[in-house]
Amino acid sequence: MRAITIPEPGGPEALVWSEVPDPEPGPGEVVVDVRASAVNRADLLQRQGHYPPPPGASAYPGLECAGVIGALGPDVTGWRVGQEVCALLAGGGYAERVAVPAGQLLPVPAGVDPVDAAALPEVACTVWSNVVRLAGLGAGETLLVHGGGSGIGTFAIQLGAALGATVVATARKTKHRVLRELGAAHTVDYREQDFVEEVRRVTEGRGADVILDIMGASYLGRNVAALATGGRLVVIGMQGGRKGELDLGALLAKRGTVAATALRSRPVAEKAEIVRGVREQVWPLIEAGRIRPIVDRRLPMSRAAEAHQLCETSEHVGKVLLTTG
Ligand SMILES: NC(=O)c1ccc[n+]([C@@H]2O[C@H](COP(=O)([O-])OP(=O)(O)OC[C@H]3O[C@@H](n4cnc5c(N)ncnc54)[C@H](OP(=O)(O)O)[C@@H]3O)[C@@H](O)[C@H]2O)c1
């Protein structure tokens, strides 16, 4: 088969479409014939040599895919060859075939294009596990989503709105119209406006009950300032740095919580549990048309370098797909 390899870390040109050995399904695994994968921010870091795959994961990039089951390994039940699926991966999605633990498979939701389904697993699992399972977002609460135009952000806005929360999203101005269409009640141009002031203004001084943050250090103080009493800040990205100063007095006064998580490095059993929760709670919202995959564009996998260049400029909205067909 062919896969994107990274012989030497570097710029987008480091991604090479190469002949490689086919994967074999181990016990409890299936091999998916990949129709599409999707670019995640983590892939850019992996290409640069800053985010090595966890032990045992494929060396090729790609944290999700959609395709058709091509082979079943020993001890797999409940799935059949030829079934259309999408999957959460620890790596290896940028390839024509990938082996994946069966617990990380999801059926293609009814009504979703089987290629566009590649845009769903990573964002659905990340957003649901953090915003719903960890932070417990409830109807009537306010959710602040940073990077509303990202793959993660476009999903978080839709999920928050579908759950009955009021969603506030930060993004560059040109993305605001789309984010409103996706369900953001308020949009903040983080380049021109102070998001703390805006969140306070639209919540009549209360603040955000849940914040999904991708910036890390550079937003830590302001995120705590934007929290409501009893608010939950969940950090999933460090685009603004990893070491910040936390004012515990400010957090304590609000009885607030700060959490940080990563999905990729979780054990297979934990991923399977998250996938199960997503299938039970999020898939019905997708099948009801309340949430849809947001695909900026599709590019052939052989042009992965171009896709990475685009994602580095952040001009995309939602996900950039890489297709094999
Ligand atoms: N921990 C986990 O398990 C996990 C899993 C998946 C993703 N993530 C993280 O989630 C983040 C999003 O991932 P992705 O693949 O969806 O990214 P992406 O599509 O590449 O988007 C990155 C976004 O960052 C936004 N941004 C840049 N500077 C900003 C600022 N100062 N304030 C607000 N937004 C800003 C950009 O928006 P503008 O165009 O508006 O500037 C862009 O939409 C990444 O940091 C990624 O590492 C974490």
Automatic annotation (TrEMBL):
The keyword Signal is annotated on this UniProt entry: no
Top-level taxon: Bacteria
InterPro entries given in the database record: ADH-like_N, ER, GroES-like_sf, NAD(P)-bd_dom_sf, Quinone_OxRdtase_PIG3
Residue span, Enoyl reductase (ER) domain: 10-322
Coiled-coil region(s): none
A Pfam family per the record: ADH_zinc_N_2
CDD domains: p53_inducible_oxidoreductase
One annotated GO molecular function: NADPH binding
Segments traversing the membrane: none
Signal peptide, first to last residue: none
Keywords (A to Z) from UniProt: NADP, Oxidoreductase
Alphabetical list of NCBIfam families matching this protein: quinone_pig3
Name the UniProt record assigns to this protein: Putative NAD(P)H quinone oxidoreductase, PIG3 family
Source organism phylogeny: Bacteria, Bacillati, Actinomycetota, Actinomycetes, Micromonosporales
